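Hi all, posting the design record for the shared folder.

TITLE: backbone redesign
STEP: 1 of 1
STRUCTURE INPUT:
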């Protein structure tokens, strides 16, 4: 379901927890893209599930949003959860549904075409209604069909799999974690130059052994992370541009090209690599 709006300009909202640099990088890239008209669209609002004073990184993110004069909506999930459980002590995890419903009430006036998740650390509840109401897209540091989970979990799985390549994708959010229909993706090799040396240093160790020996300071871990990060904001921008220009469209849980044909995601590898 898509919320109907009065303007023909493509508009989108951004959801973020804002805890790290990646959130700021993604939002900045999107804003610069819209202001230069590379993305012929407008950011209607930013929603954050934290309020000022809860986390230093989030405070910096919120201040950045305010500096851009974008409507900012905050709703502390910690405060909401605490207050809900006090009122309904036997409710278990029902607060998650009510939390998402409260978000819907707060953002309904903006009537956007899509919501882009940029470092949003909560998983939408079943029954809360956000993905059912809006085309909600999420960036995941893996190629389609690759590992799911946090970016750290993805990298450790790539190491265990001795993967030959990886990628970044943007997909629709569904009940299945990191497995929604793919809008766009890019792919890159995990072999060559410094990567070969890093693989050699890992040898036949498992990811658990590497964790115990070096942790995230491991050279291979760091290189793979760098390869993901330098493509994430580029894919984020190119996806929003493709949506705004009608090069890809979302129809329920189907992704279509400009000819209204079903596709399994738009491969933007060439476009992304051209920017690097």
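Okay, here is what came back for every position:
SEQUENCE:
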């Amino acid at each position: 379901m898509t919320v109907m709006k009065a303007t023909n300009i493509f508009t989108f909202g951004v959801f973020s927890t804002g805890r790290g640099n990646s959130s700021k990088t993604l939002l900045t890239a999107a804003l610069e893209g819209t202001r230069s008209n590379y993305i012929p669209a407008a950011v209607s609002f930013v929603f954050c599930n934290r309020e000022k004073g809860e986390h230093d990184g989030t405070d910096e993110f919120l201040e950045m949003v305010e500096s851009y004069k974008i409507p900012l909506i905050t709703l502390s999930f910690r405060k909401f959860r605490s207050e809900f459980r006090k009122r309904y002590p036997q409710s278990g995890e029902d607060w998650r549904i009510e939390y998402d419903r409260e978000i819907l009430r707060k953002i309904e006036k903006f009537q956007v075409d899509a919501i882009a998740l940029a470092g949003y650390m909560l998983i939408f509840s079943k029954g809360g209604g956000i993905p059912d109401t809006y085309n909600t897209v999420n960036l995941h540091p893996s190629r389609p069909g690759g590992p799911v989970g946090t970016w750290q979990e993805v990298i450790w799985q790539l190491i265990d799999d001795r993967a030959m390549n990886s990628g970044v994708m943007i997909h629709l959010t569904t009940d299945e974690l990191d497995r929604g229909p793919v809008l766009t993706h890019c792919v890159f090799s995990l072999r060559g130059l410094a990567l070969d040396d890093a693989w050699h240093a890992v040898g036949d160790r498992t990811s658990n052994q590497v964790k115990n020996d070096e942790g995230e300071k491991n050279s291979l871990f760091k290189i793979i992370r760098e390869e993901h990060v330098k493509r994430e904001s580029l894919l984020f921008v190119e996806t929003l541009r493709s949506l705004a220009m009608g090069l890809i469209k979302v129809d329920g849980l189907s992704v279509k090209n400009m000819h209204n044909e079903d596709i399994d995601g738009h491969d933007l590898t060439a476009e992304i690599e051209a920017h690097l």
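COMMENT: The longest strand covers residues 41-48.
Let me know if anyone wants the other runs.
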